[in-house]
Amino acid sequence: MNPSDSSNPLTAKLEQQLVELRLPRIAEIHREVLDEAARKHTPMLETLTALFGEEVNARRERALLRRVQAARLPARKTLQDYDFAWPQQVPKAALLRLFDCDFIGHHGNAALIGPTGTGKTHLLTALGYKACELGFSVRYTRVVDMLNALITAHTNGTLEKAIRAFTRPQLLLLDELGYLAIDKRGADLLFQVVATRYESGSIVLTTNRPFRDWGKILDQDNTVATAMIDRLMHHGEALVVKGETYRNPQNKKKPSP
């Protein structure tokens, strides 16, 4: 009798057990795999390894999908798609080290600093996908969106819960710091997130403003700016990108990041 024949009572029993054990990939493919193993006289251990290998891969793919969805990343970007030849100055070696993601295990940080249109968001997004692939929990947000969410939560009395959404992931990606001025309440909330993650979670951010200008964008508060930079750079690195924007109509030789 064919081992995967539906009339075989052991087949029905096996399928019931696979459902109870929550092994959907094996349940999906076991008949085909068992039939092929019977035809080729494949050793039992090899057959079992193939079946469970499929289940492991399927679980990894589902887990990756969940991490990417939880990260709320923009459309997928990769480091391979980034044109290192475009910026006038780019710390390529440091960026390649960053994409190893070893810094996450040490709660390290990084700041990508440079003018608009030089691919900082591209790099930040690509880093987020890479970290997800390596099994890290990630959250991406524009700074303005995070602060709007926290201010709303503060008004609704749910600030503590809202902050956890940005402090729990192993890697927080903050995009576009400095594009809009931040008032005192926003500056205090941003500092609270940075301080809470200090030496307990990693932050990588993008900004179009050098550190010396952070006081100007944080409600003219150099004290908060200095304290924030101190925490970010204690276990962090500033990566400066210089060059013209990809989005300049005169710069059409390269595709927009």
List the helices and strands and how they pair.
Blueprint: H1 9-20, H2 24-40, H3 44-71, H4 92-98, H5 102-105, E1 109-113, H6 120-133, E2 138-142, H7 143-156, H8 159-167, E3 171-177, H9 184-197, E4 202-207, H10 214-217, H11 222-234, E5 236-240
Parallel strand pairs: 1-4, 1-5, 2-3, 3-4
Helix pairs in contact: 2-3, 3-6, 7-8, 7-9, 9-11
Protein model, in words:
The protein is α/β, with parallel strands linked by helices and 257 residues long. The protein folds into two domains: 9-70, no CATH class; 73-240, Rossmann fold. It is 53% helix and 11% strand. The chain contains eleven helices and five strands; from the N terminus they run αααααβαβααβαβααβ. Helix 9 (184-197) links the parallel strand 3 and strand 4. Helix 7 packs across helix 9. It starts with 8 loop residues before the first helix and ends in a 17-residue tail after the last strand. The mean pLDDT is 91.
Short description:
The protein has 11 helices and 5 strands.
| CATH top level assignment of the largest domain | Alpha Beta
Using only CA atoms, what is the Rg?
A: 24 Å
The DSSP helix count reads 11
Which ranges are low-confidence, i.e. pLDDT below 50, for 5 or more consecutive residues?
Answer: none
Largest sheet: 5 strands, parallel
Q: The CATH topology of the largest domain is what? A: Rossmann fold
For the largest sheet, list the strands in their spatial order: 2-3-4-1-5
Helix content: 40-55%
Choose one word for the global shape.
elongated
